[in-house]
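The aim of this short unit is practical: by the end, you should be able to scan a pair of folded records and say something sensible about each. We start with the first protein, listed as its amino acid sequence and then its structure tokens.
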Amino acid sequence: MRGSRVLATKGRKSGEWRTTPVNPLSLGGERYLLAPRGQTHWVRNIRANGEGSLRLGRKEESIRVVELADAEKVPVLRAYPKAWASETKKFFGLEKDATDADLSQIAPNHPSSG
């Protein structure tokens, strides 16, 4: 898909490199990773290491991530399903007119980092 990347992270237990497709989001001059499926293995791996790489074809970019606090996730949670609706909308269970309170309620279930 246009804009998607392959995230590579070191396994938190094995130390071996693991890969998974992700959909980075650019918002307000920053780039974010969000886990639509929640506490996945890639989330736990990148939390443990704080870094990984984003790959597109032969291009590889090293990244460092900082997890957002739940209160900081609202703008990301509002923008992400719009940007990647065809792939991820079903994981959020939100209506088009979701309020900030609705987004705050689901924030703990969707780890986000910038």
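Turning to the second protein, read its sequence before its tokens, just as you did above.
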Amino acid sequence: MPNGCVRGIGVLVALLLTLSACVPATPTLDIGDGGFLSGEPCGPPCFWGIVPGQTKEAEVLEILQKRGILEACEGFNKETEGGSRGIKCGSQLVIGFNKGSDLVAGVGFSPSDITVQEVIAKYGEPSGIYLGVIGVHMFHYQMIMAYPRILALVRLSVQDKWPYILEPSTPVTNIAYDVVFDENFSYNWEKWHGYGQYP
């Protein structure tokens, strides 16, 4: 079984898990690569001009309106239950705000057609990886690659069998940016050892 553990990631993991949750059918959003590889209109940790720690809620709403997707988005607020507050656009984009503030805390999105090989070609090997189990009655296995220098967690496709097999063609399913995720943050990551079997 996986022995990796991620503690204190907060908004990042919440963003990734929110994106992976089942949601009602919504219009498909054209996320593309979200600028992650292309840098258009901006690159990590910027998404469509939204930067954790810099962009305010009113600016987020304006950006979503200009992109013509605001009507596909809805707000959520679970702060009174110890959760987070933000905006969710279908199953492809979620933007979280700092508690009691209108400042963006993190951005999570589901890009189209990005593979591990492309990520490594652009940003090099990850600083570490997280291996986890999701599910209650049926277990599935996931891998998340950490890129602290661009404030990013890159979640890969879920697999049904253990151990997790990482290949160059393994798809990226979600990417999350958070301003607090930097080289000074310490997590209990597994070591990256290239393609193949994990652990």
